[in-house]
Amino acid sequence: MSLLQIRNVTQRFGGVVAVNDVSMHVDEGEVFALVGPNGAGKSTIFNLLSRFYTPAGGSITFDGHDLMKLSPDQVPSLGVARTFQNIELFEQATVLQNLLVGRHRHRKTSVLAEAFFTRKVWEEERHHRHAAEQVIDFLNLQAYRDKLIAGLPYGVRKVVELGRALATEPKLLLLDEPASGLSVEETQDMAFWIEDIQKQMGITVLMVEHDMGLVSAVSDRVLALADGKELATGKPSEVQSHPAVIEAYLGTSGIAKGGTAPVRSTAEDAAQKTGDVA
Amino acid sequence: MRFVFKTSYDADIRWFKHGAQMFWYAILLAIMLAVPLYFMATGDPYLLGEFTSVLIFAIAGMGLMLLTGQTGLVSLGHATFMAMGCYANVLLLNAGVPWLISFPLVGLLAGVFGTIIAFPVLRLHGVYLALATLAMSILTGDFIILGEAWTGGVSGIAVPDISIFGYGVNKYANPYAYYYVVLAVVLIVLAFYRNLLRSPTGRSFAAVRDSEISAQAMGINLTRTKATSFFFSCAAAGLAGALFGHNATYVTHETFDVVMSITLLLMIVIGGLGFIHGAFLGAIVVGLIPVLIANGRSFLATTFDVNINIPGLESAMFASILIGFILFEPMGLYGRWLKIRTYFELFPFYRKDMFRRQKSYLKTERVK
Fold first, then answer.
1. The complex's ipTM?
2. Where are the domains of chain A?
3. CATH topology assigned to domain A88-169
4. Closest residue by Cα to residue B185 from B161, B166, B162
5. CATH topology (fold) of A1-79+171-180+204-236
6. B110: closest CA among B78, B140, B132?
7. Does B364 touch chain A (CB under 8 A)?
8. pTM, whole model, 2 decimals?
9. What pLDDT, in 10s, does the model give residues A75-107?
10. Range B45-365 has CATH code 1.10.3470
11. How far apart (Å, rounded) are the C-alpha atoms in residues A180 and A184?
12. In chain B, whose CA is at the least distance from the CA of A48?
């Protein structure tokens, strides 16, 4: 039994079919990557999992629960945490407060008890704080603990967002382009963290990523999508050399036939243009 | 420069960050407690009355700050909840309910009323929410006239005195006791406010303010969180309204008008959105500017024989102050104070752009 099971899911926006009859499953303990050109439907799948969208058809089950029956704010309570492609942190709060918001699903106290700040609330606060500190230690965020997000550089925000997702103590972590906009060193750090998250914390990771270097370094299985349709599933190397995947990235004119899959989007664009001319 | 060495998580949970901070707030409290003694000695409680109204506005300001500053929901209708609190208090007192019971009950009623109002308008964002609450504020006067049987309508209604175990408190007969009653309410509301802010509820307010989508992704129920914010906000406004009624001793349909709603919003923007201090600083500005204008006027008249009688001078001054703040100090008075304090704390290493942030809008400021 897989941790996450997606069966024949379809999502339409007006006339556009963003996700077309996609089925996939993510097993417990693996790192699963979604790859594909822009507009392939990768982020749409994430938003379906977070229940921001309701699919036109198909079913999604997580850990034996039917996700279709839940509202977006109930999904995290099952143990699904996510990050966003364009960082969605709480700007006017400190790093620590952001991590503590991640603890929200473990909240055990009522609003009334919090208004009076009873002993139990105090103890819970210490407990949440301890959990947040462990995330801070893990991601080396000590220097930024009391800094407002609004003043932090992009790379740090990316890490804080990962930290906020980890603070929820998830079973499944959805990472939407964890390496986009990061430098080479930061991307390497991210790869190590993802590995630790999988191996040490035992958290299953599902990620969308364009950086094929990171994808092949950390992921166990890869699903390639194009125009909302599934192209290939398998080990990173298999998917990278799959003819349909190469075709989706480079076009049909065959200039790169038998070549390796592109790594940089600029390379893609250039190849696309040459392809069009030819 | 002060270094605070934290040795336990409690250091971040406590109300005061360090001993010195506690010391200064204790001094402030002592001064607040001692203020009436000064006026008792001089025998002229006129200014004490002004201080009391500033405190009442601070209570309403804290209510609105929780909603607008912490949760990011702009309300232009908080005078409505003050009216609700005021009239509920009068009706309960006239029905023979003791003040010590009626007053907390008024907070509860106003909170529940606010929550009920909140549900239909919670689907609205930004300007639309502001407009809906503005419409509510405009309708308030009409509803008070319609409910003439209870509210006295256009001719108004007299507000009974506060009576605590038979000890009557009236603004005119006993301004000192009245001041202490208001101060006690301020402290209680303040304690609730601080408690909420340092608990998961307060953090979920901030989360909803800064990003609804990721708040949901963290398991925060938007409707419930916003309704909670409305509840506490309107409860505080209701309490402020009840005290305002005692302060005015007579209220009509014109007491809680749109101008008051706007003044409340103006107050927290001037004070500094998102800071509790902002509610107080804003209340001081809003409450004491009319006093300053009046005093300045009589000073000019008596000393230089210059008589200034321009109608609408006060509104014009308010408006120019607000425009000035939005242009030059969007963080409000408290933001300015933070900058000054940082300047001295870091002297001589303060940099001009230390508080410059990337331009970012509150969700509520975006028109969806």
1. 0.87
2. 1-79+171-180+204-236, 88-169, 241-278
3. Rossmann fold (3.40.50)
4. B162
5. Rossmann fold (3.40.50)
6. B78
7. no
8. 0.89
9. 999 999 999 988 899 988 999 999 999 999 999
10. yes
11. 10
12. B217
Who contacts B335 (Cβ-Cβ below 8 Å, separation ≥6)? B272, B275, B329, B355
The answer to whether B200 contacts A109, with C-beta atoms less than 8 Å apart, is: yes
B359 CB within 8 Å of a chain A CB: no
CB-CB under 8 Å, A77 with B219: yes
The two domains A1-79+171-180+204-236 and A88-169 share their CATH topology (first three levels equal)? yes
Give B130 to chain A, closest Cα distance, Å: 21
The phi-psi region of residue B43 (left if phi > 0; otherwise alpha if psi is between -120 and 50; otherwise beta) is left
**Cβ separation B206–A93 shorter than 8 A:** yes
| Residue of A52, A77, A122 with shortest CB distance to B13 | A122
CB contact B215 to A (< 8 Å):
yes
Question: Residue for token digits 């939005």?
Answer: B326
Domain boundaries, chain B: 45-365
Write out chain B residues lying below 8 Å of A126, CB-based: 9-10, 13
Tens-digit pLDDT string for chain B (368 aa)? 677 888 899 989 999 988 899 999 999 999 999 999 999 999 888 889 999 999 999 999 999 999 999 999 999 999 999 999 999 999 999 999 999 999 999 999 999 999 998 888 888 877 888 899 999 999 999 999 999 888 888 899 999 999 888 888 888 888 999 999 999 999 999 999 999 999 999 999 999 999 999 999 999 999 999 999 999 999 999 999 999 999 999 999 999 999 899 999 989 999 999 999 999 999 998 888 888 888 888 888 888 887 777 777 777 877 787 788 878 888 889 988 888 888 888 888 888 777 766 555 444 444 33
Nearest by CB to A73, which of B196, B209, B216? B216
From B199, B214, B274, residue closest to A117, measured CB to CB: B199
pLDDT in tens, A158-184: 999 999 999 999 999 999 999 988 999
Contact A114 B218 (CB under 8 A): no
B60 contact partners, CB below 8 Å, separation of at least 6:
B78, B82, B236, B237, B240, B241, B244, B264
Tell me the pairing of strands A80-82 and A172-176: parallel
